[in-house]
TrEMBL record, chain A:
Belongs to the GTP cyclohydrolase I family. This is GTP cyclohydrolase 1. It comes from the Eukaryota. InterPro entries: GTP-CH-I_C/QueF (IPR043133), GTP-CH-I_N (IPR043134), GTP_CycHdrlase_I (IPR001474), GTP_CycHdrlase_I_CS (IPR018234), GTP_CycHdrlase_I_dom (IPR020602).
From TrEMBL, chain B:
InterPro entries: GTP-CH-I_C/QueF, GTP-CH-I_N, GTP_CycHdrlase_I, GTP_CycHdrlase_I_CS, GTP_CycHdrlase_I_dom. It comes from the Eukaryota. Pathway: Cofactor biosynthesis; 7,8-dihydroneopterin triphosphate biosynthesis; 7,8-dihydroneopterin triphosphate from GTP: step 1/1. GO terms for molecular function: GTP binding; GTP cyclohydrolase I activity; zinc ion binding. It holds the Pfam family GTP_cyclohydroI. Keywords: GTP-binding, Hydrolase, Nucleotide-binding, Tetrahydrobiopterin biosynthesis. GO terms for cellular component: cytoplasm. Belongs to the GTP cyclohydrolase I family. This is GTP cyclohydrolase 1. Residues 60-236 form the GTP cyclohydrolase I domain.
């Protein structure tokens, strides 16, 4: 737990830039701070843009998971009691552990780095037409209510001599969605990660999702969907490219 | 008395007749006697709405521990009030513990000389898996053959709400709804079908996106008479 305590102390130094999740997304790298196995992370000049995010540190490791499991499970037992349930009944006996493991799975994006996922799968290809991967199922957690968000992601990019393995786009979605998220930020993080990795001519990301915090509670609107999009590069400047992308993801 | 047993399965003393139930979290005045259980559950609930506010701080602290344990920074702007919001959300999602069937049904049972099938279908249902604390949601179809007594239609949906807004197992939920209607109306037969998607299967574990779980409870005429069951199933099949 030492590691996470250290992180807590470091966090208080950078509170101004605390809008982004994953701790070190786009933050100044603290000199001398090593998160264990931080290969290839440069010490950068202060720059707090999200563009740094793809080179970020892992904020959580498998050992951290193991170490924090008991305290999370104890917290869940408290929650069960606080809700008026009996944690000793047969159906709930192991629920704190299952719920804790499930929650760690839902936030496993904190354990992964973009650079691990992408490193081998960038290829030089003389292709400069649009590449789209659509209908990628996405599951995330609302950071405000800790309730699931799920939907689909459509990604399109215009390569500039470099293409990416197609499943890597889906893996990028996984890394960023399996976190405590806000849909706007998720969309942007995916787009920026692809931009940083490939330097394409343009990237477009559309996320269409249902928020259980709106469906199961609160306003309780069953059929509402939230759509966010990020257009970078040519997709932002050229309306025709954007049109083509949006038409192709509709069909 | 079957209903009493079903209701005990969650929300009260769960699965067994207990002679004494002392709860550590604030309503230790509820000492349940085996003989008193039948009366107790009709008037009492395992959680009082008035106590929800006082439980919030403990829940908030638990959620803060969880956030820290997951490696997040609880001081960042987006997470500042999350423990409170998550605690309130969880209390809302388990508000079925506040309510009893008798509160909801008492006025809306009418004498009506109707003996044909009455179906209320496509009732949206949202519940929480008791094993992983992750939502499962879907649709409930309820049908019953009245025996001189009909119930207000929205009350069927309210019964679904009471039992689904708890930590549930889909099988038990189906049975509880069926038994509640059975107890309240003494109809000739009751049928309940639930079709739901379980996020614990979709978002984690096996991760099968399109799988649905279907459970049904057939009581009375629906169990004995295949034609009645067929009619119900045919009418609730989505076109």
């Amino acid at each position: 737990m030492e590691r996470s305590k250290q992180k807590q102390m470091n966090e208080s130094e950078n509170e101004a830039d605390s809008a982004i999740n994953g701790h070190f997304d786009g933050r100044v790298k603290i000199p001398g701070w090593s998160a264990g196995g931080a290969a290839g992370t440069p010490s950068t000049a202060p720059s707090s843009s999200v563009m740094e995010s793809w080179r970020e540190e892992r904020t959580r490791s498998l050992e951290d998971n193991e170490l924090s499991l008991p305290s999370i499970a104890a917290a869940y037992t408290t929650i069960l009691r606080g809700l008026g349930e009996d944690p000793q009944r047969q159906g709930l006996l192991k629920t704190p552990w299952r719920a804790a493991t499930a929650m760690q799975f839902f936030t496993k994006g904190y354990q992964e780095k973009i650079i691990d996922v992408l490193n081998d799968a960038i290829f030089d290809e003389d292709h400069d037409e649009m590449v789209i991967v659509k209908d990628i199922d996405m599951f995330s957690m609302c950071e405000h209510h800790l309730v699931p968000i799920f939907g689909r992601v459509h990604i399109g990019y215009l390569p500039n001599k470099r293409v990416l393995g197609l499943s890597k786009l889906a893996r990028i979605v996984e890394i960023y969605s399996r976190r405590l998220q806000v849909q706007e930020r998720l969309t942007k993080q995916i787009a920026v990660a692809i931009t940083e990795a490939l330097q394409p001519a343009g990237v477009g990301v559309v996320v269409e999702a249902t928020h259980m915090c709106m469906v199961m509670r609160g306003v309780q609107k069953m059929n509402s969907k939230t759509v966010t999009s990020t257009m970078l590069g040519v997709f932002r400047e050229d309306p025709k490219t954007r049109d083509e992308f949006l038409t192709l993801i509709r069909s | 008395m079957e209903y009493q047993k079903a209701a005990e399965l969650n929300g009260l003393c769960n699965g067994k007749i207990v002679t004494e139930y002392l709860c550590r979290n604030g309503f230790s005045e509820l000492t349940v006697d085996a003989k008193k259980v039948a009366v107790q559950h009709k008037n009492e609930t395992s959680r009082k709405e008035a106590e929800d506010e006082s439980r919030l701080p403990a829940l908030e602290e638990a959620y803060t521990t969880i956030l820290r344990g997951l490696g997040e920074n609880t001081d960042r702007q987006g997470l500042l009030k999350t423990p409170l919001r998550a605690a309130k959300a969880m209390q809302f999602l388990t508000k079925g513990y506040h309510e009893t069937i008798y509160d909801v049904l008492n006025d809306a049972i009418f004498d009506e000389d109707h003996e044909e099938l009455v179906i209320v279908k496509d009732i949206d249902m949202f519940s929480l898996c008791e094993h992983h604390l992750v939502p499962f949601f879907g649709k409930v179809h309820i049908g019953y053959l009245p025996s001189k007594k009909v119930v207000g239609l929205s009350k069927l949906a309210r019964i679904v709400e009471i039992y689904s807004r708890r930590l549930q197992v889909q099988e038990r939920l189906t049975k509880q709804i069926a038994m509640a209607i059975s107890e309240a109306l003494q109809p000739v037969g009751v049928a309940v079908v639930i079709e739901a998607a379980h996020m614990c299967m979709v978002m984690r574990g096996v991760q099968k996106m399109n799988s649905r779980t279907v459970t049904s409870a057939m009581l009375g005429a629906f169990r004995e008479d295949p034609k009645a069951r067929e009619e119900f199933l045919a009418l609730t099949k989505s076109a």
